[in-house]
Design brief:
218 residues; alpha/beta; Rossmann fold; seven-stranded mixed sheet; 6 helices; 7 strands
Length: 218
């Protein structure tokens, strides 16, 4: 899929497409209402709209990302509702049948930036600032029988994500994996990652995982 991308907006890459493939392979609710809570270029929202979602809502804290996703939705002729802001604050009591989430998850020695391109990937010292908020929010974002698919790196702990999801009454399991070489950001950050104990000495690769969370009514 051809996508426009404004400077500073996250470029869809391996994690984006791994999540899209996992969604294509998954059994999901029919005619779903879909949320893409960290939309960037809108790639996953467009994927959902093209796959026949009844409704697609895309959220991002970056105005430039929202403008980019709007341009891409117009270019492809796919209807998407675009909302600027923090997904934990701007959706009210709305619920969704499917959540497709590629949140920032890269560990960083610096706090989560308020502005700039790095806001699309940096997520605090353990890479979990946004992931933890997403795990806490999903029980209220998912409709009964709803499904979330979340992509993240093993650098920030898939077991911790699944524990949080289960603690928040959701069923959770890894449904896809892919090992990739470090990109430029992690290569530059490798000495700090080693010192922080997040990678063994000399490691220059990471494993991406897609975690499925189901809201099961009991």
């Amino acid at each position: 899929m051809r996508l426009l991308r404004a400077p500073g907006v996250y470029r869809p890459q391996t994690d984006t497409w791994l999540l899209a493939r996992a969604a294509a392979d998954a059994t999901l609710p029919a005619d779903p209402r879909v949320l893409d809570p960290c939309t960037g270029t809108g790639a996953l929202a467009l994927f959902a709209a093209r796959a026949g979602a009844a409704e697609v809502v895309a959220v991002d804290v970056s105005r430039r990302a929202i403008m980019t996703a709007w341009a891409n939705s117009r270019m492809h002729g796919l209807p998407i509702e675009l909302i600027h802001g923090d997904f934990t604050q701007v959706l009210g009591d709305r619920t969704f049948d499917v959540v497709l989430a590629n949140p920032p998850y890269v560990p960083s020695p610096e706090p989560v930036p308020a502005h700039g391109a790095a806001r699309a990937w940096d997520a605090g010292g353990d890479g979990r600032v946004i992931l933890d908020r997403l795990c806490a929010q999903l029980p209220t974002l998912l409709a009964p029988g709803g499904v979330a698919l979340i992509v993240q790196s093993e650098l920030c702990g898939s077991e911790q994500t699944m524990k949080l999801l289960r603690d928040n009454t959701l069923k959770a399991a890894i449904v896809a994996r892919q090992t990739i070489d470090f990109g430029p950001v992690l290569h530059k950050r490798a000495p700090w990652l080693e010192a922080a104990g997040l990678i063994p000495p000399g490691c220059r690769y990471e494993e991406l995982v897609v975690i499925r969370a189901d809201r099961i009514e009991r």
